[in-house]
Design a protein that fits this description.
Elements lengths: L1 E6 L2 E4 L4 E9 L6 E7 L6 E6 L6 E3 L7 E6 L4 E6 L8 E8 L5 E4 L3 E6 L1
Parallel strand pairs: 2-11
Antiparallel strand pairs: 1-3, 3-8, 4-5, 4-9, 5-6, 7-8, 9-10, 9-11
Length: about 120
């Protein structure tokens, strides 16, 4: 079992930045790929970014490529999502998840709200 707790969400103006963190506890964090997903009101949850267990491989949704950066610190059991040049359409609840790179995600956090005002 892996427990995930997101933090760092908030209200920011368009063009601003936020850095989300996801702290993991439980089973060995470095065994898992990590992903960030988001769900906007009235929409389905969508993939944002993922990072392999070592941090060597990353992948992004086209909508955030070039603006968001995923990273991890296995010594601190934490994964990050640096979000720059934020847009109102980035407004959503952001979730981190642990699982298999480009595969299934088995563990999910409770989410953190990101609101971008225009």
């Amino acid at each position: 079992q892996v427990q995930l707790v997101e933090s760092g969400g908030g209200l920011v103006q368009a063009g601003g930045s936020l850095r989300l963190s996801c702290a993991a506890s439980g089973r060995t964090f470095s065994n898992y790929a990590m992903g960030w997903f988001r769900q906007a009101p009235g929409k389905e949850r969508e993939f944002v970014a993922t990072i392999s267990w070592s941090g060597a491989i990353t992948s992004y949704a086209d909508s955030v490529k070039g603006r968001f950066t995923i990273s991890r610190d296995n010594a601190k059991n934490t994964v990050f999502l640096q979000m720059n040049s934020l847009k109102p359409e980035d407004t959503a609840v952001y979730y981190c998840a642990a699982g298999v790179y480009s595969g299934s995600y088995y563990y999910w956090g409770q989410g953190t709200q990101v609101t971008v005002s225009s």
